[in-house]
Every structure is written in C-alpha cells, then in structure tokens.
Amino acid sequence: MYKWIKKQLHTIKSKPLRIAVIVSILSMFCAVVFVVAIFTYAYSLGPPPLTSQQNTVYYGANQNVIGEERGLQSRYWVDLEDISKHVVKATVAIEDQNFYNHGGFDFKRIASALFHDIKAMAMVQGASTITQQYARNLFLSHEKTWTRKIKEAFYTLRLEMFYTKNEILEGYLNTIYYGHGAYGIEAASRYFFDKSAKNLDLAEAATLAGIPKGPSYYSPFHDQERAKKRQELILKTMQQQGKITKHEQFLASSEKLTFTNAKDRETKSIAPYFQDAVLKKLANILHEDIESIRSGGYQVYTTLHTDHQKKLEESIQETMDPESDLQVGAMSVEPESGAITAMVGGRSYEESPYNRATMAERMPGSSFKPFLYYEALENGYTATTSLLSKPTTFELANGKVYAPSNYNGYYAYKPITLAQAIALSDNIYAVKTNVALGPKNLVRTARKFGIKKKLPAVPSLALGTAVVSVEDMVGGYSMIANGGKRVEPYLIEKVTDSKGNILFEHDQSDNEQVLDEKKTFILSQLMTGMFDESLNGYMRVTGASIADELSHKFAGKSGTTNTDSWMVGFSPKLVTGVWTGYDQNQQMNKVDEHQYAKDIWASFMNKAHEGEKDVRFEQPKGVVGVYVDPVTGEKATPYCAERRMMYFEKGTEPTTFCSLHYPHAQEKEEDTPKEQEKKKSGWKKWLDWLPFGQ
Known about the structure:
The longest helix has about 30 residues, at about 15-45. It is built from 23 helices and 16 strands. A hairpin with a 5-residue loop joins β1 and β2. It is of the alpha+beta class. The chain has helices spanning about 1-10, 15-45, 85-95, 105-120, 130-140, 145-160, 165-175, 185-195, 200-210, 225-240, 245-255, 270-285, 290-295, 305-320, 370-380, 420-425, 425-435, 440-450, 470-480, 515-525, 545, 590-610, 675-685, and strands spanning about 55-60, 65-70, 300, 325-335, 340-345, 385-390, 395, 400, 415, 490-495, 500-505, 555-560, 565-570, 575-580, 625-630, 645-650.
C-alpha cells in the first residue's frame, strides 16, 4: 500500500499539488486514528449508568434538611412498555424525529440550526438529540462552554454504543423534568392528571410532551393558553410526520383536559415559597438555569428557621378566614445580618406559587412614614416638635392642589407632637413635614434605607403612595432595628457542590453605618408609641387593638390604603412585615380585613419571642431620656395624667415643665398674680429635687 501510494505521488508533476495531496492523506490518517482512539477509549470505559443520583439539597439555619430534589428511586421509574405509546410518539416527534435513524447526533439538524444561528447572529435553534439531552441531564451541567459540549458528545457516544434506542428513550422519559418537582413521565402523569403514564391519551400525552422545553413556561398550571398552543403544535407535527391521522389530531385538539385539583398535587412540605425564592437566587449565583440546578447535586445552606416558619404559617392560618379570598405576604428577618428566617408568599402554594412577599409591589400607606420621620430628625425635629393637625390644602408647584385627610376625618384641631403624630398616624403632620423638607429629600432618604425602586418626589409620598414589596419594607425597618447599619435581606449562607467544594458564601463584611446611630435609636423609640395609649389624642393609637396582646416591647408602624393593609415591626432581634390584600387590588370593605395584618404580626412576634427575655434597644451615648407630658410636649410633673419616656439628642430635650397641669392652672381667679407667682415659684423649687430627665 505504501509503495503504491508513493508511486502514485510521483506521477503528480506539480510539487505544490503533491504536497497538498500528502497533507490531505496525513490529515485523513490522523482523523481516522483519532476516531478509532475515541471509540476504543469509550468502549474501554464500559456502559455508563442510566440513572443519576445528583440531588440538590436545601438546609435550614440549624442544618436540618428543608427540601430536596429527590433521587430517581422516588421518581417512579417505569418500563417503556408501561408508558403510553402516545407519549413516546409525541416526545420523539417534537424533540427528535430522526431519533431511531441517527447514531446520537443528527448532523442534518445541526447544519440547519447552524445556518439559522448564523443568519440571525444569535442562538435561535437547538439541535440536541434525545440522546444528547439525556447525557446532559445525567452527567453534566447546562453551562454553555466548549468543555461541556465535548463531554456531552462523549457521553452521547457511550450511550449509543452500549444501549438500544428503546433503552435510551426509556431512560430519557424517566429522568426528564416536567416542572413542579415532577421528574419523569410517571411522576408528571400523576401530578397533572392523577393517572399512570400508561393510561395517558393522545391529548394528555401531547400536553406533557410540550413541557420539558420550558417547564415553567409551558406548564398548564402557570399558563393554560400557552400550554394549549404548545400541545396543538405537537399534534400538528405528529400528523405531518404521519404518526397520527387528521381525525385523531382534531379529536385530541378538541378534547377538554381534566387536571388534578390543587389539593391533590404533591407539594413541598417546608416553606415552598422560600424554596422557590432560593432556587431563583441560585440561578443568579451559579449562572445556570433552574432545571439544571434541581439536578446539580448542590448542597444549599439557607437562612430559614423552621421554627419561625412554622409559627408564621400557624399565625396566618389561625387569623385569616379560610373562606376569604384575601391574600397575604409575610417575611421575618434578623436585623443584624439580614438573614431571612421565615417567608410566606400566599395562602396556598398549590393554588398560586406567586410570591407576594418578594414579587408583589403594593402601596405601603403609613408604614412608609418612618423613613420620612428619620429625615425629619436629621433636619432638627425632635419627639416634641409640634404641628397643627387640621384639614389642610397644599398648593403644588404645577398649580394643582392636594388635600390629604386623616383616617375617618379625625383631627386634633390643635398642635400635636411628632411622638403623637407617629402613634396616631396623622397624615396632615406627615404631608406638612414632607412639603417643608422637600419630597426629593424623602426619595434620597428612602434610598438610604435600601428602597431601590423609582419613587415619585411628590407630597403624597409621605403617605406611602408609591409601590414597594414586603421584602423592601422589612429591609428598611431592619436598619432602624440594628442602629442604622447597611443590611439587605438574603436567603443563602453557603453553596457547595456534591464534593463539598464551596461555590458561594454570603459576604457579611458590608455592615457600613449608613444612618446616624442616635437618630435611628430615637426613631425606634418613637415607633414604640403605636402601642402606648398614653399617646392617645383625638383618636386611639393605631396599635391599641393589639397592644395588650404583646408579650415584649416592640416597635412598629401600620399602614392602610383602600386595597392594602400592612404591619411592619421589630424587636432588636427580629423584624417582621405582613401585608394583606386582594390580588386584583379589590377594595377591602370589611373591618376585620384591615385588622388581619396586625393580628398576624402580633401573634407571630409573640410566638417567635416566647421564652426569651425582653431585649432593649441599646441607648447610644449622647442620647437622654426625659419623661414628657404627651399633650404639651413639656417635661412631665406628678400632676400630669399621662407621661411617657421620650428620647432626645443631648441639648435638644425640653427644659420647661408642663404648664397645662401645674396646680396654679386650677387656682381661683381671686388669687393675685403675685400669689400665683409665689406658689409657682415654690412648686418649681420642689420639682428641682425630682430625678426627671436623667
């Protein structure tokens, strides 16, 4: 052979041509050797396993397992003979119509996809065969790198080398992800239709065959219209390929499907909304799609306290009317770190996996006011700064007028202090303050509290007319609870691969002091006033309905609009926010509907602090406490009916004693000014011996 080739080469008189032929022959020889080597090496490794046990596991804060993408032993592996023939035909038709005719790679399809990708200058078509997809799901990540592509090709070769087409298809149908935690056709069939895979009819099979392309996107439980269009595409493709007749296509397309009831579906046992949020966060951290993470073998250490989660769910269930369509979003956070300890995104995860704690944005109402009053403290306000509470019309820059009102039209018709304005949630005081300080400054202040969404710089912003999430509010209140340090709610402490290698670890180093420590402490103490009836004025304090139920000293602020009810509050150890309302912004007309948020919050906070000592907020240096008469804002005397400890930066505290409740205020008119002054002077001397203001 060698001599013959040499002889033939000598017949080529052109030297460049002769070199080109030699190079071509050598290249072909090397290619043949390479292919033989690859096949030999693949064969030497033997058949790869047809199952994968790479489960992603979620751990709570105390290292207990809170969720797991279970292994194949619980995914109902079934033989191909026990899977409906309609499923087999539909899957092959839409995923890989040449499956039985290629050796693992559909080169014609690859060329077509490459042409369309080049034409569109983007990856618009995929060309993976069923065998390639199976190899990827079993052994590899879904990262788009050349290394992964080469490994995928190698595993595909091994699968095709050692297994029949039916064995490969059986493995594929038993491992592919159909969404909602259902791996494999049997699990999917039970989840969606409450029947075995062998009993699926053509319409049902086409529906399920359409889901793996995008389990979240094509699930009929997420979008029935989109799932229906996908089903019709598959039926049409099957008819065009001759797998079904036009009559069968028509009947299947016209069939009304009967899905399982929500209560009958398999659900996650612990904190399903939390687990979903973790999964989405993982996708950002690891830069992988959600379906890849589910079977990636990751060990995910989360911030969830299972005890807090159970108590939060119990509080919601015990409080809300089971017959009501009212929804709820709630979250609890450790203010020092930002670790989310509990999360509820709705009344029923099975009926609606939409997370109202992280995804829904609603008007917070008066619960937004603490951000305004921090700004006020920065601009010289104190707990006793007084403004007139009465109906007021504000003229805006554009010439329009704005006339806010108080709850139920109640007003003091006299000056009230900042302490009372917070406790009673006086809207006139808030808008006056916002207008005086400038709405743009409130937007800037909200940014300091971690509110990143675009906010309108208008007077009504003081009343919480912009939309935010429960997560936003809990994050902002955490900065009040921790003394003004930067904090952002987070879900994941650490992620490792199946071998324990750390892939991600939460960074706790960013604890910058963003807010003034003294003003933040003063604000936290002002926010305890909503539970203190010594601050009652023209109406009761807003937390009066739950004040007697509270087992510890808490701070907080409620908020109410026509469509939303909020309660956000905290101790030094825990911040909790609760929102209730209707998904479609339906008005809440019943009194008890507006009470749910407060009742849920009070119930949970009591349970979460059960058995713990009452931890007080640490008073910074430079802050003094003074007993104050809530009505006058002056230092209280023994003759004051009510008195409350209020806090001030040293040098800004009131220095005069209450003039309204002095004994001389009730003296007879016949007392001469000289006699009144004498009594007053003596009274002042006696007061000097009392330890007020220390």
